[in-house]
Design a protein that fits this description.
This protein is an alpha+beta fold and 274 residues long. The strands form 4 sheets. A 5-stranded mixed barrel has the order 1-4-5-7-6. A 3-stranded antiparallel beta sheet has the order 9-13-14, with no helix packed on it. It has 2 domains: 93 residues, OB fold (Dihydrolipoamide Acetyltransferase, E2P); 158 residues, no CATH class. Helix content is 25%, strand content 28%.
């Protein structure tokens, strides 16, 4: 067991888990910019005083995962040891304080991350795409798989506090970024699912405000593409691998205002006409 000080940069949307009740993958960086993955964290069960926000420093006792998860960045936290260290870092000077840590070990491209994955098992990173081409939106199941829900029900039979609590609502859409890297080996476009907690939270906020599912999905796309990847934003993607398959997904977006005096590059977002 060791004490970790981590700047939280991403949280994935919660999913039902037969083993962990609900699974939320949290990732961040150390003071030296090294990536850390903390799971499982039953975020909705944490006391309010421990419910951390993005770009907030936390301290937690944790140990390396063993068994199935050999990813070098993965740690199992002792949830009751988690402490929040101050307020979230602000957005002054173009998110400079956030960028100081979050982008300290930015990879040159997804191709570079693939190389690192083969070399040493790297499974977390952050990149700046050359161009975000689009977000593809496709219909998905409206409910969790029955076996997930049954396993969750069985687990909660012995916990009165959770027995009547609803599982996290499932977003009935899949969202994929399509983008290009600034790398000569990039032979087309990358297509990666977005699993950012903020995406699901925005979708359900729209639904709760009276939007139809189709309109809510359109508003999510507009925010994650039209706003967060706009020409005046220096957009980066936090990416990580899925344990079962080793494939990469987008787990968060870093989108400070673009510094035109030093950017010297074309707008990040180029409409594909779709």
């Amino acid at each position: 067991m060791q004490t970790l000080k981590v700047l939280i940069t991403v949280k994935t949307y919660p999913i039902p888990s037969a083993k962990y009740d609900e699974l939320v993958c949290t990732a961040g960086v150390t003071e030296s910019g090294d990536f850390i993955r903390l799971y499982p964290i039953r975020f909705r069960d944490l006391p309010y005083s421990q419910q951390y926000k993005k770009y907030q420093w936390v301290e937690v006792l944790a140990k390396k995962h063993k068994g199935r998860d050999v990813r070098k960045e993965s740690f199992r936290p002792q949830e009751d040891s988690l402490k929040i260290l101050g307020e979230p870092l602000g957005t002054q000077r173009g998110w400079a304080e956030r960028a100081r840590f979050a982008l300290a070990k930015r990879a040159a491209s997804m191709e570079a991350l693939y190389d690192q994955q083969k070399a040493d098992g790297t499974s977390l990173g952050v990149i700046r795409p050359k161009r975000i081409l689009d977000i593809e939106v496709s219909a998905d199941d409206a409910e969790w798989k029955p076996q997930f829900l049954e396993a969750l029900r069985q687990q909660r039979l012995w916990d009165d506090r959770k027995a009547t609590r609803e599982p996290p609502r499932k977003v009935p859409w899949k969202f994929h970024y399509r983008f290009e890297c600034d790398d000569p080996r990039c032979n087309g476009t990358h297509r990666m699912m977005i699993e950012d907690w903020e995406l699901g939270a925005l979708y359900w906020r729209c639904i709760d405000n009276g939007d139809s599912p189709t309109i809510a999905a359109a508003k999510v796309k507009d925010k994650f593409l039209g706003t967060m990847c706009a020409a005046d934003r220096d957009t980066h993607l936090f990416v990580g691998t899925v344990l079962e398959h080793g494939t990469w997904v987008v787990i968060g977006v870093f989108w400070p205002p673009r510094d035109d005096s030093s950017a010297g590059s074309a707008p990040l977002f180029e409409s594909s006409g779709s």
